[in-house]
Amino acid sequence: MKINMRQFGEIEFDPNIIIKFDSGIFGFENLRDYLLIKVDDELFYWLCSIEDLEIAFPLVGLRLIDDTFPQEESSEAFGIVTMNSDIRKITVNMKAPVYINQTVKSGYQKILDADKYLIRYNLFVDQKEG
After folding, report:
1. What pTM was estimated for this model as a whole?
2. Under 8 Å CB-to-CB from 54, ≥6 apart: which residues?
3. What DSSP string runs through 10-24?
4. Which residues, in sequence order, are bridge partners of residue 57?
5. Cα distances (angstroms) measured from residue 65 to each of 18, 68, 83, 122
6. What is the average pLDDT across 3-28?
7. CA-CA distance, 61 to 51, in Å (whole number)?
8. What pLDDT is recorded for position 56?
9. Given its phi and psi angles, is residue 116 left (phi above 0), alpha (psi -120 to 50 degrees) or beta?
């Protein structure tokens, strides 16, 4: 299959790598089929809808931020990143992680019932502070 995405241009992919989200992503429940793209040495993954080529969520692995972050069996936890031109204002949603099982190509999002996980966790801190 081939798609043409604004962020990545033309992408050819095997339909067997499509990750299915049976319930979609919060706010995008109608979109269920995604590609998980990682560009070589970049920090972020991209969860790209193949149903609406304008939709791509930047993700970061949550175990990079908190090595005790709750995992689900056979799935990796990712946080959706909110980008900003000011690096100090880039945040990640740790409260509603996206879990992806790359073996069976499925994913889901859930809300964690723990106050310690923030909706807007600052991904980068100013080293001058403190």
Report:
1. 0.90
2. 6
3. EEE--GGGPEEETT-
4. 47
5. 26, 9, 17, 10
6. 93
7. 24
8. 95
9. alpha
Q: Inform me whether the pLDDT recorded for 130 exceeds 60.
A: no
Q: Is 23 exposed, middle or buried (0-12, 13-18, 19+ CB in 10 A)?
A: exposed
The confidence score (pLDDT) of residue 126 equals 64
In this predicted model, what pLDDT tens digit does every residue of 40-99 receive, in sequence order? 888 899 999 999 999 999 999 999 999 999 999 899 999 999 999 999 999 999 999 999
CATH code matching the domain that covers 2-122, chosen among 3.55.40.10, 2.30.290.10, 2.130.10.10, 3.40.50.2000: 2.30.290.10
* For the chain, domain boundaries: 2-122
Residue type at 45 in one-letter notation = Y
Instruction: Write the single-letter amino acid at 84.
Output: N
Name the pairing type of β-strands 19-21 and 106-109: parallel
User: Using alpha carbons only, what angle is made at residue 41 by residues 40 and 46, rounded to the nearest 5 degrees?
Assistant: 65
Read off φ and ψ for residue 40, nearest 5 degrees.
5, -100
